[in-house]
Amino acid sequence: MKDKTTAINTAGLIARLLLGGLFIYAGAVKVLAPAEEFAYAIETYKVTGPALALRAAYIIPWLELYAGLLLAAGIFTRFSAFLCGAMLVFFELLLAQAWLRGLPVTSCGCFGSGGSNSLPFEFLLNLFFLALGYPAFRHGLFFSADKGMGRERS
Amino acid sequence: MAGIIIFVSTVAVLLARQLNLGPERPAPGFRTFGSAAAPIHIQEYSDFACGACRTAAGKIEELLELYGEGIQVQLKHYPLLDIHPWSLDAAAYADCAGEQGKFKEYAALLFESQEKWARAAEKPEEFEAFSRGLNLDWEKMQSCAAAPDTQKRIRLELAEAEMKGVNATPTFFINGKRAVGPAQLAEQARNFYKLIKKRH
User: Fold this and answer.
1) What is the CATH number of the domain that holds B132?
2) A38, A66, A111: best mutation site toward chain B, by most B Cβ within 10 Å?
3) I need a surface site. Which of A33, B99, B107, B182 has the fewest CB within 10 A?
């Protein structure tokens, strides 16, 4: 029983670190590049105009970075895992509508301006990241700052 | 704890931006001169309507001749939109000339005659005249200059320069070290032999 609990907790920790690390990387490459770069990627999804895309491009990368850092460190673990999951659902919806509309999205903007894989591939990859959200949310308190501070319901 | 992490990461990002540690967008091939393996990499942010940029272009040409494979120069656009109304167009046409294989020649003509077109009240005729003089396809150049991809590339270089704190032209980053104006470029160029020798 104890072995099973340890395995689940370890899986939660790994999921938390992977998802947190992913968000840190995705946020960092974007905050270190001009916001316009990410804004152009957002525009290719054709759901917002250039002005809103630019505003989003200023905000989203910082949100990704902060959420990733908090999740990896295990601070407000459940909230930050939920926030990462919510962002992934939002990205998934954007990818899905672009895929269904057959939009020529050459860079998904997921990790900066570099070229990306096809939309279906990015969609599936995002789904995998989203799947990591569950163990991170449910069992992510192992070796977390929250646990260290006795805050186990965050 | 959360506050500390957010504060520290924000400061780290702002510092990294100042130190140019972000991902670099390379200039297109027609604006890149010299070998990628060169020990000295120069990025120049330039405006075709700026007098000091014209002087710097000559200096860069000399350095490329003098150091050959020892240096690589990437020219990036930084049109000063507030004071040079036609700089953005000039940059776009130069890039489109580059796509037809004559960036250097078109850029040289823009620099040579910058007094004629830089402050023109209406769209300068020189853009077309240079194109025809170099046997370029002017119609193709016009559609290329207006194309979103061309405009986007220049705007991104502008945004990149602003993030690096560029506010004057020409600004150089020589192996990451900033130099503003042809005089500072010449000053840093005095160490080029040492840097190249060190590599060999």
Assistant:
1) 3.40.30.10
2) A66
3) B99
